[in-house]
Amino acid sequence: MRTKPYHPVVLSILRQHGARVVLDMPCGSGWLGQAMVAGKLQLDALDGLGLWEFPAAGLPYRHVREHDLDTPLAGAAGYDAIVCAEAIHLLRNPGLMLDGAFRALRPGGRLILTTPNTWRVGSRLAYLTRGFHYGFSPMVGKRRGDYVTYVPWSFPQLHLFLAHQGFGEIVLHEVDEPKPKYLVEHLAGLPARAYCRSHERAASSADERDYWRQAGGRQALYGRWLVMSARRPAQG
């Protein structure tokens, strides 16, 4: 299994919250199943949803079925956790996917999302000079089924979508990667850090203070990935 920097973060979140029944959507080639085989993750059941790619035979998936995440999710419920890795930026209807995930989680269950971080200073500098974020080059001539990126996500934007879907305990997790990678990124990020810190000091509630603390943190401003988790309330 080719390990990516966000893989150990996702596995750590699943272990931390004691997830036993997990939905992997999209499951791709099945890296969560490979983590189980390698002894890095212990689950009672792992299900997968895929559209273009599916796990190899022999991986410990209970059920794998075809599903387009741009369409309503039906027939899935009671999961302790749902992992949606490197997919939400490829969707035309991300709100529909979040609604389906919310309904498929048991009360108190958690959604884990990973996606490129276009709010990081390096990507913002690229947008300033060429009009496109890193990884979001012009898609002219590409069709569905090709690698087409639709939505450039940032921490504030993804936090907004999750909160308005009804999720709570929204956390941006640290990824072990160079942050920042270049000195110019550090310097260019200082005004944003100062802005977020001023709002953190002026916050009128713990939730607001936590939001600005995360928004002004190194992962949000300099990290290449967003790894975020959010909890469906225990009631409702």
UniProtKB/TrEMBL annotation:
Superkingdom of origin: Bacteria
SUPFAM superfamilies xref list: S-adenosyl-L-methionine-dependent methyltransferases (SSF53335)
One Pfam family it belongs to: Methyltransf_23
Keywords: Methyltransferase, Transferase
InterPro entries registered for this protein in UniProt: SAM-dependent_MTases_sf
GO biological process terms held by the UniProt record: methylation
GO MF entry, a single one: methyltransferase activity
Listed CDD domains: AdoMet_MTases
Keyword Disulfide bond listed: no
Protein name according to UniProt: Methyltransferase type 11
Originating organism: Bordetella petrii
